[in-house]
Amino acid sequence: MKKELKIYLASPRGFCAGVKRAIDIVEKSINKFGSPVYVRHEIVHNKQVVEELKNKGAIFVDELSDIEDEKRPVIFSAHGVPKSVPQEAKLKNLSFVDATCPLVSKVHRESEQLYKKGFEILLIGHKNHPEVIGTMGQLPEGSIKLIETKQDAEALEIKNFKKPLAYITQTTLSVDDTAEIISYLKNKFPNIKGPIKEDICYATTNRQSAVKKIASKCDMFFVVGSRNSSNSVRLVEVAKKAGCKNSHLMHSEKEIPFEEIDNSTTIGISSGASAPEKLVQTLLNNIKKDRKVSIEEVVVAEEKVIFKLPKELS
Description:
Blueprint (H helix, E strand, L loop, with lengths): L2 E9 L5 H17 L3 E4 L6 H10 L1 E4 L12 E3 L7 H8 L4 E3 L3 H15 L3 E5 L5 H7 L7 E4 L2 H6 L9 E5 L5 H14 L13 H14 L4 E5 L5 H12 L5 E4 L7 H5 L3 E6 L5 H12 L2 E9 L15
Parallel strand pairs: 1-11, 1-12, 2-3, 2-4, 4-5, 6-7, 6-8, 9-10, 9-11
């Protein structure tokens, strides 16, 4: 007799509208222009997605200078790029399609408007993440100060109090950790200006809410996603904070810990915004081989967001 196992499946999980749009852009570009098409950086942070697109005719490069055939189009990743990248593409006469998520573009526009109005700008985000590099690269160097932690906020010294102060954030941060930093900044600088509509995107917020709702009921929690996916790594942290210390990121190299699963009666599963649903189904099927599984899907929101494709492809 197989032992019974209850699985709570978080919903929403997996692909968000920005990721779907970015993958669509690569596939439709290959259909329209033929292969290869070049993609600067991983289009989204997921190894399987990248491999599948390679098989369809995409070539991934780190920089535009790595492109071997400059007659072929190049696509910019969903995380956004510094202003210097499209400028370089124009100088080289490259044709390019920008797959930046519209919610990241919103943050770019905010930063430009604040700069034009003379604000000192703080960006709450993770250093070296492509999205942060892209956002900081919208403005001249030194125009944006990066705040990674509450300690950074505490150590922050503003030299020029003549300038008004504003903050923007990366779209894939932990909602609670960011709220803590923002609350500290507001206490320290009562006149600081925030975005009219917050920058952390709907998909990040919904996925974290779903994880929070089920983590405390679980002996183990799995988040399917890649190690370089910021929103997936945040989901693991959220699950731990919400009451399931035994939470794991299930990336492509990680073996399924069957022994630990065998000692569990309840498990939670979610996936990052760039992880394909079939990876979740594969994990479930592997668990079902040894256990009698009952699945309860816990839904915290219905996502109906769809982003239009760029005019070159629509």
